[in-house]
Design goal:
alpha+beta, 19-stranded antiparallel β-sheet, two-stranded antiparallel ribbon, 21 strands
């Protein structure tokens, strides 16, 4: 398998592993939330232990033994990041996030903390964008999004994490809509588009069961029509995103040219959607208002393949080969293709377990092109599930199996095995997850193994193991490392973005000197085998 294929496979596995690991470590999350509420300092250290193949390289083995990354967090919006080599912190930085700005402190940055207000950061990025040729509309869009979205959202997230809660989970529907509108520069047309679709819903009370699911007492039907889909492209925020992409692709375009191209693209897209007759009827079955039991979504439409590219090409002409008389032939458009997607999700509850299943079929001109199926079953002590994707010949594209055991909530384990089939070959990655919880510590290990198949990995586990990421989280009393940063104020801190040109130049010289000292410290604490390898490379 090519290296890029391995990277893609690992990314897929990580994405699949995230919800599993989150479910597996509920006790750990509760413990961390309580520690934050109690004002404890949380210190997390990451290390890597290479597998047999990687450890055979002496420099890799020695660097893995010497290297550690440490992250600390304390209530008050403060935290630190450190890189340790041979038990010496060669890089160490502290940060304090506040509603009005942020503070940074590091020996590389100098003795005093640095302070950057959100307004100064916004102004600095705006000036950089203007210097790079960005137009006023793009700059204005960024500025509004930064102040309304990033700044407020970041501060709210910090506050929520300190309380051990997810701020989004506590927001009402109206607050979510308000936050969404703010993130879109105050443009509420997208929210209104969603509200218009929601207003068409038909709610029916009764008893409903789909494909053996639990019995629901409410059925909600919504049909997203061709007109609804086309209307989405009338939303100013959507058009601004198209404009931003065009400008990023060609910075020489003027505002007028971008506006003209956006109008043409939106017109072509809407025309294609309207011609497609696309519809998406959706039905949701719930117990009460929001306890989802089953869902059915069916999408259908007839589209011209690659219409975004061919819509402007239809007026072009192509010179006939060997003909110098400028006679031309029109470009032939591909035939329209009927596309259908059917999705079904159900929940079935038994005495000791709950199983969620889903199936999705994609068809082209009524011929099945792909099928995706999956299930996940949860009991009081375990989670297990499967996932499979097949092509138009019903040959496997990807399969996955997972299992998690949390009978003892302080000692949990999980395994996710994924196989990807590509070009007649198969490659597999197995992730193993183990976590143990003590009175004031959480130890987590994530093993990564790679081979031609899951069976081959398990048959030769030692050689298949690429490595183990170890995470140790320690809950302790406030160490006092953030005392100076917590007492810092804008007046007592250095504010680089408010310096005169002369002072800024002097400050940059100091930073360069400090950076060289940091580099010397890093080089001086590297293992000899790594230093020799770097010296040979030079």
């Amino acid at each position: 398998m090519k290296r890029k294929g391995l990277v893609r496979l690992v990314v897929i596995v990580l994405a699949l592993m995230l919800p599993l690991s989150a479910m597996a470590q509920g006790a750990a999350l509760d413990m961390l939330a309580q520690a934050s509420t109690d004002g404890k300092e949380i210190v997390t250290t990451l290390t890597f232990e290479p597998g047999t193949m990687l450890a055979a390289e002496q420099a890799v083995s020695d660097l893995s033994t010497a290297l550690a990354i440490r992250v600390s967090k304390l209530k008050g919006g403060v935290g630190s990041f450190a890189v340790s080599l041979s038990n010496v912190d060669v890089v160490n930085a502290q940060m304090r996030v506040q509603e009005d700005g942020l503070y940074l402190q590091s020996e590389t940055l100098g003795q005093q903390p640095l302070y950057f207000s959100w307004a100064d950061i916004q102004q600095g990025i705006t000036e950089a964008m203007r210097s790079s040729g960005s137009d006023d509309a793009t700059i204005s869009q960024f500025s509004q999004g930064f102040m309304n979205g990033f700044q407020q959202g970041f501060a709210a997230s910090i506050a929520g994490m300190e309380e051990g809660m997810d701020p989004a989970a506590l927001m009402t529907e109206e607050q979510i809509k308000k936050r969404l509108t703010e993130a879109m520069d105050g443009d509420d047309s997208f929210v209104k588009w969603m509200e218009a679709i929601e207003a068409k819903k038909v709610v029916t009370a009764g008893e409903f069961s789909v494909d053996g699911s639990d019995v629901a007492d409410t059925k909600t039907e919504i049909i997203v029509t061709t007109e609804d889909m086309a209307a989405l492209y009338d939303v100013p925020y959507i058009q601004k995103q198209i404009a931003t992409q065009l400008k990023a692709k060609d910075a020489t375009l003027t505002d007028a040219q971008v506006e003209e191209q956006v109008a043409a693209m939106v017109g072509d897209i809407k025309a294609e959607i309207e011609k497609s007759g696309a519809t998406a009827p959706m039905t949701f079955y719930t117990q009460g208002e929001d306890e989802l039991v089953a869902a059915e979504v069916k999408f259908t439409g007839t589209f011209t393949p690659g219409y975004m590219e061919t819509s402007t090409a239809t007026t072009d002409t192509v010179a006939l080969e060997g003909d110098t008389s400028a006679e031309v032939a029109p470009v032939k458009q591909p035939d329209p293709v009927k596309v259908d997607v059917d999705f079904l999700m159900t929940r079935k509850t038994l005495e000791e377990s709950t199983t969620h299943r889903f199936t999705m079929h994609a068809l082209q001109d009524d011929v099945k092109k792909s099928t995706i199926t999956g299930s996940m079953t949860k009991t009081d002590t375990s989670i297990f599930g499967t996932f499979a994707a097949t092509d138009d010949q019903e040959q496997p594209v990807m399969t996955a199996d997972l299992i998690s055991d949390f009978a003892d909530e302080k000692n949990t384990s999980a395994e996710l095995a994924v196989t990807v089939y590509e070009g007649g070959t198969a490659n597999a990655v197995v992730f193993g997850f183990e976590q143990s919880i003590g009175d004031a510590a959480i130890d987590t290990a994530l093993r990564i193994s790679y081979g031609e198949s899951v069976e081959a990995i398990k048959a030769d586990a030692a050689n298949a193991l690429m490595g183990t990421i170890k995470v140790n989280t320690l809950i302790q009393a406030d160490s006092g490392q953030f005392a100076a940063l917590l007492e810092a104020t804008p007046d007592s801190a250095v504010q680089p973005m408010k310096m005169s040109q002369t002072d800024l130049e002097s400050f940059m010289i100091t930073l360069q000197s400090n950076a060289m000292q940091t580099l010397y410290k890093i080089i001086g604490n590297l293992p000899p085998s790594v230093s020799a390898l770097l010296g040979g490379a030079q």
